Structures are given as structure tokens and as C-alpha cells.
């Protein structure tokens, strides 16, 4: 995140959760230093897998979805991002590791900083 911040690449969170439910982690991790936009459940009428969260986040950043990269942990999230026109890297968690991503056209499953920088951003 520091790499992106130093290069003035904006970042957003598009979550199906209410902002109030992510606020504790957001503050604990000092994400306000990195994240420019947070779009939550209360900001949209449809949540993931509907692309509305991503479309709203991309619009708030004033970017074209084709120039954005989503980092997702679920089939619903990856589907939403793809349907919004974003490329996707998938990184599952304990709750989503057994989901079937076969129907999702994601780019990669390696969320290491080195991989993301080498493959998706100019060094």
C-alpha cells in the first residue's frame, strides 16, 4: 500500500459490509492513511455479486474500471468486480478458501506485493 501511495495511485474499499462494521479494523490498521474512498452497504441498493459497489468506488476515484485492479476474497466479490469491468486478483480466507472460483475469470491468485508490483504496476 505504501508503494501505491508514494506513486499517488488511489485506493478504495468496496465492501458488502456496513462501514461501521469495518471501522475498528480500518482504524487499527491506520488505513485512512492509504484508502481514499470507502463504499459500503449503506451506499448502494445492491451488494456483491452485483457490481454497484465497485462502480460507485471507481466513480468516486474518477477512474475508468478498465484501469483498476480489485483484490477479492470471495466468488461474489470477484464476480462483482469483473462485472464492473475491473481485473481481479483473488486471495481467499478461512471462510472462502473452499469456494469454487472455476466460473470466475480472475487474473491471479498471488497477492504478494512483489507479484502485484511486477505484474500490474510499473516499477
UniProtKB/TrEMBL annotation:
Keywords: Magnesium, Metal-binding. One of its GO terms (molecular function) is catalytic activity. Signal peptide: none annotated. Gene3D superfamilies: HAD superfamily/HAD-like (3.40.50.1000). It comes from the Bacteria. The keyword Magnesium applies. Pfam families: HAD_2. The keyword Metal-binding applies. Belongs to the HAD-like hydrolase superfamily. CbbY/CbbZ/Gph/YieH family. NCBIfam families: HAD-SF-IA-v3 (TIGR01509). This is Haloacid dehalogenase.
Amino acid at each position: 500500500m505504501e508503494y501505491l501511495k508514494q506513486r499517488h495511485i488511489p485506493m478504495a474499499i468496496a465492501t458488502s459490509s456496513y462501514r461501521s462494521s469495518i471501522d475498528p479494523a480500518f482504524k487499527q490498521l491506520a488505513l485512512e492513511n492509504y484508502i481514499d474512498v470507502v463504499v459500503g452497504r449503506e451506499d448502494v441498493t445492491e451488494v456483491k455479486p452485483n457490481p454497484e459497489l465497485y462502480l460507485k468506488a471507481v466513480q468516486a476515484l474518477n477512474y475508468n474500471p478498465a484501469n483498476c485492479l480489485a483484490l477479492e476474497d470471495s466468488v461474489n466479490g470477484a464476480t462483482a468486480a469483473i462485472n464492473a469491468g475491473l481485473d481481479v486478483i483473488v486471495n481467499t480466507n478461512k471462510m472462502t478458501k473452499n469456494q469454487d472460483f472455476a466460473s470466475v475469470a480472475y487474473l491471479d491468485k498471488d497477492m504478494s506485493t512483489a507479484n502485484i508490483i511486477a505484474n500490474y504496476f510499473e516499477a
